[in-house]
Amino acid sequence: MDNQIFTELEGTFADKFGHQPAHHFFSPGRVNLIGEHTDYNGGHVFPAAITIGTFGVASSREDNLVKVYSLNFPDQGVVTFDINDEEKLAGNAWPNFIKGLLIELRAEGYSFDHGFELAVNGTIPTASGLSSSSSLELLISVVLDRLFALDVPRLTMVQVSQRDENHYIGVQTGIMDQFAIGFGEAEKAIYLDTNTLEYELVPAIFGDNVIVIMNTNKPRALTESKYDERVAQTKEALARLQTKLDIQNLGELDKATFDANTDLIDDELLIKRGRHAVYENIRAKEAVAALKANDLVLFGQLINDSHKSLKDDYEVTGIELDTLAETAQQVPGVLGARMTGAGFGGTAIALVNKDEVAHLEAIVAAKYEEVVGYAPSFYVAEIGDGAKALD
Ligand code: GLA
Fewest Cβ atoms nearer than 10 Å: which of 50, 67, 216, 376? Predict the structure, then answer.
């Protein structure tokens, strides 16, 4: 599969740039097992890199031109710019991710004294919530690292990728996605404290169970504004708590302290948003402990609880994700199911006995088509390595 993708990509590269590429790269997507909408609140997350992702082939040039082509955006054609030109390209031109990264890396003291050619092909379904944009950011990071022999530390790659998204692209995401894609390892999930950036690779061993990704196939809506609204709401809840409590972020609170101080927030909606951030952080910690103790039943229950909280308190699910997760939760052999990622559309995951996968897919697909009116799609997730140069 990978070989086939690279063969096609080499053909595209040769067709666009007239010679074979010198280097091959891969950057994964991610699923988040639990700890959702906690990463911009100093809480814990538990994501893993997956084997579907973004493939790239590249070569250096001797002049200062950057020439890039994406099989995902063929209508944009070969985009060409001078490596020193920092002006944003019009529209949603995908090479803006490259421009933003060059700016962030220059700010870190790295320099770029020649151009390059790059062809990419992403296999993450669009609008799936599996982090195609972070996958592209880290792909470009490892490309630049290799072509310019920069030797950028991993954490810096992750941080400049997040800043690229926050500053140049303009979405206020947390660090979870870039971190998972930068630090992922096969068969391990990443238990990350987003406040300290301390992390632990935890074996993602689920016995006879697998993770099934269930894609809503909901067309991309303008979800960035709703995402930024949740960021603002939790910030406001925190600010109100800080009038009495000595805390830097919601991730520092236990449930009892939060519950005892909701009068400080004094707004039903903001209380719900804050409660999700606090409770979900605790749930992530409990879930990791359950997985380490091989208590998959408890792990699954916490996954179900996470979905309910994202639905009722955080209100980021919607009919598509609720139908997928709640239907899956009822299927025999399913330990737990929840939305993953930002929400609103995108995907849900289910932890299910491997012998029940086909049954799960049949039941969920039938219910989803009845309620939503079109078909979902399914993939069994394989947990793979983080972004890397392959040669
Ligand atoms: C998106 C963001 C992440 C995180 C999740 C929700 O994927 O990019 O930083 O906030 O949503 O957990």
Answer: 67
